[in-house]
Amino acid sequence: MSVMQRSDKYERIVMGPSGSRLVTEDAVFGRSRSPISAAMESFKGVIEPIRFEPIKILITLSGWGSLNAAKQRLAIMPGAVFVIPPGAEFHSVAQDTVRAGSLYLRSDYVGDQLPWLPLAHPLVHHLRRAHAGETKFGRLQVGTHGVRELTIGVRRLIALAGAQGQEIALMSAAADLVHFIGRSAGAAGEGMPTAVPQNAVAEAVAALRADLRREWRIDDLAREVALSTSQLRRLFQRQLGISPAACLARLRVDHMAETLAVTGMSISEAAAYAGWKSSAVAGRAFKRRYGVTPSTYASAYRMPLRGVTSANA
């Protein structure tokens, strides 16, 4: 038995050539000219194959199951974020009732925005691949502590998507949600960022970013900002939701991602350039944050993409 709830606007669904349902952009956006739409969905059991014409970001808020596509079986769990390429067929199996928010993006809008978005951003990477015609689904994991923030962000998007004259506010809210996912991806088991870092924490992060290849010790970093190690750990946890060591690892991973995107360095060279002593350790940290291996990530930026250039290059 399967149960799926969705907005009435998704009733205009056509059958694709393979027999799967195809949800067109007209079905998602209706008469709206907005490049973004959002909806809350819930489903249970086996959901038959379906495809979407716009790019779909599925944000799991509760429940467990699997999302199944060609040669992929991805776990659905709270905090899992999926980027579903346009036209890619998939079906879902929910062991429990899954509640999720869906963010729909017109492909031409994504293409217009890509040149201005940061390279070292996990969600942007998967959006770039989806827009380029990649059929593999992207998956990121936000820690369970971040599900509340995801829920608030999704509900805000849905409220704005249903209101007249709120296109700018809707795009701003979508940007906020994308930013939160980007800075929280790969943080399973960690607390979630609660604020922009202030004072000593901001200085400590700047010191780490300025010298990623230094062999940092917690007491060295504490001396840089005139705090005790216990004070520094406490402030990092309170303001960023992560430890100083986890912050350094994230900075190194993002620097490695940007290096792979804009240079011809090998994986080991980019890892060393970002301060990693072991390319294997760097690779594991990279996949945990970006959802793909460094080599897969690098290849995405070393092949021609569909009319996409980067203002960051």
Which helices and strands occur, and which strands form pairs?
Blueprint: E1 3-5, E2 13-15, E3 21-23, H1 25-29, E4 36-52, E5 55-62, E6 65-69, E7 72-76, E8 80-84, E9 90-105, H2 107-113, H3 122-131, E10 138-141, H4 147-161, H5 167-184, H6 199-210, H7 218-224, H8 229-239, H9 244-262, H10 267-273, H11 279-290, H12 294-301
Parallel strand pairs: 3-4
Antiparallel strand pairs: 1-4, 2-3, 4-9, 5-8, 5-9, 6-7, 6-9, 8-10
Helix pairs in contact: 4-5, 9-10, 9-11, 9-12
Structure notes:
- It holds the Pfam family HTH_18.
- Residues 202-300 form the HTH araC/xylS-type domain.
- This is Helix-turn-helix transcriptional regulator.
- GO terms for molecular function: DNA-binding transcription factor activity; sequence-specific DNA binding.
- This protein has 313 residues and is α+β, with helices and mostly antiparallel strands.
- The chain has helices at 25-29, 107-113, 122-131, 147-161, 167-184, 199-210, 218-224, 229-239, 244-262, 267-273, 279-290, 294-301, and strands spanning 3-5, 13-15, 21-23, 36-52, 55-62, 65-69, 72-76, 80-84, 90-105, 138-141.
- Strands 1, 2, 3, 4, 5, 6, 7, 8, 9 and 10 form a 10-stranded mixed beta sheet that branches.
- Residues 1-17, 188-195 and 304-313 have low confidence and may be disordered.
